[in-house]
From TrEMBL:
Broadest EC class assigned to this enzyme: hydrolase
The protein's name: Endoglucanase
Taxonomic source organism: Lentzea guizhouensis
InterPro entries: 6-hairpin_glycosidase_sf, 6hp_glycosidase-like_sf, CBD2, CBM2/CBM3_carb-bd_dom_sf, CBM2_carb-bd_dom_sf, Cellulase_Ig-like, CenC_carb-bd, Galactose-bd-like_sf
PANTHER family noted in UniProt: ENDO-1,4-BETA-GLUCANASE
Domain of life: Bacteria
Domain CBM2: 738-845
EC number: 3.2.1.4
Catalytic activity entry: Endohydrolysis of (1->4)-beta-D-glucosidic linkages in cellulose, lichenin and cereal beta-D-glucans
An MF annotation (GO) of this entry: polysaccharide binding
SUPFAM superfamilies the UniProt entry points to: Carbohydrate-binding domain, E set domains, Galactose-binding domain-like, Six-hairpin glycosidases
Active-site residue numbers: 706, 715
Pfam families with a match to the protein in the record: CBM_2, CBM_4_9, CelD_N, Glyco_hydro_9
Signal sequence segment: 1-16
Length: 845
């Protein structure tokens, strides 16, 4: 609450009228942002007014509040607050200015008598506190202390005064020489962008950490780059390939931020991007042993006061569904405390797909048990599956008795910045079920069932049962769309087209079961054979390409020509990206030709980088691999703002993410965004008041600011970090390695398991064109398994790594033929994820 002080005498100095301190005081956009409401108050914008429904029975005026944080005040400066207001029932309210965090010092307070007729109110005061760059300043209306319910509406709220222009956190200072501030991988292209209006090549020098020149050359003029607003040159220093730290690139007196030539950073990012999800867990304490003391916190939303909790959540009052659900767990979606099935669906899918892709055609050992700093790191299950399960279990809990899935669950009102999860006192409510949410559940549960077959057969069966039930329910309710106006307390996430979700869900169910009914739905979809894949990419509301990825990676009964067509579509779209990127000042796989840069543009960059990565997987062409790294270079600093959008990576990296807990900008006792967190990135629509004030007229790629209040450009979200985790994991796998040899082998692994042991049968198939004269099988156990005996091969084990070599009688394997071997083992855990024969990665089945 705000401590009341007597208002200063009314006097309006000339300087006070210049600077407006409040954001969105007219509510003309139809949104209440960034105005918040306390418990017992519901904010809605109606008829161009902000109307607060206030529950009666409170004792003090400050027991019911509507306010705005981040308001700039300067000591000894005069301010005038003015507003229109009315009340359904006549009531006295107070307007107050002060501090938004403890000790909640007050600046000024004045009471006003409201009537049903709208009136204009004004009062002037002098600030006794100093929050010149927004920080912890607050303006609030105190609406409590009344016995009965009431509705108070305000409009045209304005606070002018002070001598310093408001501006929050100004855009980061830029450099003329733009580089990936983190690092370039040895053996791969190394490019930078020079901002210069010169029409002739400019000399550049590359210096090591000691300041010695190690390479030099001439830039290539590219001219005007409309998307960034810069005139640019290309600098290519790929010929220099000596690993090291602290390199800088200079043109004249302009020098880049320092960077490394090393694969180390991208390999760290693979894990830091995944650590984001443990930070976002709901319903469990975030422990210091995994994240450090700074980021630890008690469990949120577990019915420990002041939380009202997630264990018995009813539907919104207007839905009257007649039941409650226990929806504890899952990941908080973004910077708020909401949990959304359609965002959770694609996020969990991307983590699971990263594991499935690595298991089939990459290296899944990077995700083995113990690879992540999470509580499940010693349970014998690959850690990436453990982290994904935290969300998959939540999705199961969101299934209604009829098989449909609720679209989302969140607070009844938006919570203020900052609000720690365990201190959120808002009631929690389920939104209606929707076809889109139900199909997300069906798709992810089917995918997860496939991956857990060799880990936990009972859980796998539970997942498949839920997937079938959801798919059947969705077919019975094919057009139950989310309400686009359901945006109080959480995002609406409305989606008026669900044919893509039907295709995705059918693809996952077919890949898991092989059943003809699902195959019919897949082949009959208008999205079949990557018909929807284009440069616009995929996202939570456009999920058909997720089905394509599964059908391209998982062996099914589809015609080989159809699978080839899907893979070819990825290469075709990847080529379109590369062609467009060649003409950009800051090369990035992004199509801004229709909607400009949109909310979460950085996730679109990464999802398109996924298309490039898969094109490389399907064809082996190096150009697609290089395109993936160009996308990462853009995100990590080679962009017109000289900023790494990934917290903790680069000398000038995002710090002030829009987040209720990582809110150091608003409360110095709270942390900044942890390393590996991805900012949403440029949004040329400027969809929040802070961005509108700071970035008016910005070129598309410069529509971004590192400010906690700029939620439309600087929020974090699980589906943005899941894209970063997928791409950084893929890039880490490719860093510093030669191209993976073309597989001429296939391994089929089956195991009968019991408590404390197993018996495995392994088939090695020569899928090449020439006979093997000898063979050596290699794989890694992800759990505690130890080979005790074996047959038809010479078996050995070192740590978790197992090898098997041929016997004298079965070393020769003709093309197209197989050899069958096996072993017994003690211990337990998941099945091995990847196999090699004679040093080559093999297809698994």
């Amino acid at each position: 609450m705000l401590v009341a002080l007597v208002a200063a005498p009314l006097a309006i100095p000339a300087s006070a009228a210049e600077y407006e301190r409040l954001l969105n005081g007219t509510f003309d956009s139809g949104s209440a942002d960034p105005w918040w409401a306390s418990a017992g108050v519901t904010n809605r914008v109606t008829g161009g007014e902000l109307c607060a429904s206030v529950t009666g029975g409170t004792t003090n005026p400050w027991d019911a509040l509507v306010g705005q944080n981040g308001v700039p005040f300067e000591t000894d400066q005069s301010y005038t607050l003015s507003f229109d207001a009315r009340a359904t029932t006549a009531q006295t309210v107070a307007a107050a200015a002060g501090e938004s965090v403890s000790p909640y010092r007050g600046i000024a307070r004045q009471e006003f008598a409201l009537t049903p007729e709208k009136q204009r109110f004004t009062f002037t005061f002098t600030s006794t506190l100093d929050f010149p760059d927004a920080g912890n300043g607050q303006v609030a209306f105190q609406l409590g202390g009344q016995a009965a319910d009431n509705t108070i509406c305000v409009d045209n709220v304005s606070l002018v005064g002070g001598v310093k222009p408001p501006g929050g956190v100004n855009p980061n200072p830029t450099r003329k020489v733009q580089v990936d501030q983190v690092g370039y991988v040895p053996g791969l292209p190394k490019r930078a962008t020079l901002v210069s209006t010169a029409t002739t090549p400019q000399p550049w020098t590359l210096k090591n950490s000691a300041g010695a020149v190690v390479a030099s050359g001439q830039s290539t003029p590219k001219g005007a780059d409309v998307t960034s607003g810069d005139s640019v040159h290309l600098i290519d220093f790929s010929s220099f390939d000596t690993a090291g730290t602290g390199y800088t690139l200079s043109v004249g007196e302009d020098t880049s931020f320092p960077f490394d030539i090393s694969a180390d950073a991208i390999k760290r990012l693979r894990y830091d991007s995944l650590a984001f999800f443990y930070h976002q867990r709901s319903g469990t304490p975030i422990e210091a042993q995994y994240v450090g003391e700074e980021y630890s916190r008690p469990a949120g939303h577990v019915n420990v006061a002041p939380n009202q909790g997630d264990n018995n959540v009813p539907c919104r009052a207007d839905l009257a569904c007649g039941y409650t659900l226990d929806v504890r767990g899952g990941w908080y979606d973004a910077g708020d405390h909401g949990k959304y099935v359609v965002n959770g669906g694609i996020s969990a899918w991307q983590l699971l797909n990263a594991y499935e892709r690595a298991s089939r055609i990459g290296d899944a050992t990077a995700y083995r048990d113990g690879s992540l700093a999470i509580p499940e790191k010693s349970n014998g299950v690959p850690d990436l599956l453990d982290e994904a399960r935290w969300e998959v279990d939540f999705l199961l809990k969101m299934q209604a008795p009829d098989g449909m899935a609720h679209h989302k669950i969140h607070d009844a009102n938006w919570t203020a910045l900052p609000t720690r999860p365990e201190l959120d006192d808002q009631p929690r409510r389920l939104s209606a079920t929707s076809t889109a949410a139900t199909l997300n559940l069906a798709a992810v549960a089917a995918q997860a069932s496939r991956l857990w077959r060799g880990v936990d057969a009972t859980y796998s069966a539970t997942l498949l049962s839920a997937a079938r039930k959801a798919y059947t329910a969705a077919k019975a309710n094919p057009a139950k769309l989310a309400d686009p106006n359901d945006g109080t307390g959480g995002g609406a996430y409305s989606d008026d087209t669900v044919t893509d979700e039907f295709y995705w869900a059918a693809s996952e169910l077919y890949a898991t079961t092989g059943e003809a009914a699902f195959r019919t739905d897949v082949a009959g979809s208008p999205h079949y054979k990557a018909a929807s894949l284009n440069r616009g990419g995929f996202h939570w509301g456009g999920t058909a390409p997720l089905g394509d990825i599964t059908l391209a990676l998982v062996p099914t009964g589809l015609p080989a020509a159809d699978v080839t067509a899907i893979k070819s579509a990825f290469a075709t779209v990847a080529d379109q990206h590369l062609t467009a990127m060649a003409g950009m000042g800051y090369a990035t796989p992004y199509d801004n030709s229709t909607a400009g840069y949109v909310w979460g543009s950085n996730s679109t960059v990464l999802n398109n980088a996924t298309v490039l990565a898969l094109a490389h997987d399907f064809t082996g062409a190096a150009k697609y691999r290089d395109g993936v790294f160009e996308a990462l270079h853009y995100l990590l600093g080679r962009n017109p703002l000289s900023t790494s959008y990934v917290a903790g990576y680069g000398e000038q990296a995002m710090v002030n993410a829009h987040h209720r807990f990582w809110a150091h900008q608003n409360d110095p006792t709270l942390p900044i965004a942890p390393p590996g967190s991805l900012s949403g990135g440029p949004n040329s629509a400027l969809q929040d008041p802070v961005a509108q004030r700071l970035l008016a007229g910005c070129p598309q790629q410069k529509c971004w600011v590192d400010d906690i209040g700029a939620y439309s450009v600087n929020e974090v979200a699980i589906n943005w970090n899941s894209a970063l985790a997928w791409v950084s994991g893929w890039a880490a796998e490719k860093s510093g390695q030669p191209p993976t040899p073309v597989a001429d082998c296939e391994v089929t692994y089956t195991a009968n398991k019991w408590q404390g042991g197993l018996s495995a049968h392994v088939a090695l198939k020569n899928t090449g064109t020439t006979a093997w004269t000898s063979w050596k099988l290699g794989f890694t156990f992800p759990g505690t398994q130890k080979v005790s005996s074996g047959w038809s091969a010479n078996w050995s084990q070192s740590g978790a790594d197992v090898t098997a070599t041929n016997m004298s009688w079965n070393g020769k394997v003709e093309a197209g033929k197989s050899v069958y071997i096996g072993f017994n083992a003690s211990g337990g855990g998941a099945d091995p994820a990847a196999f090699t024969i004679n040093g080559k990665s093999c297809k698994t089945s």
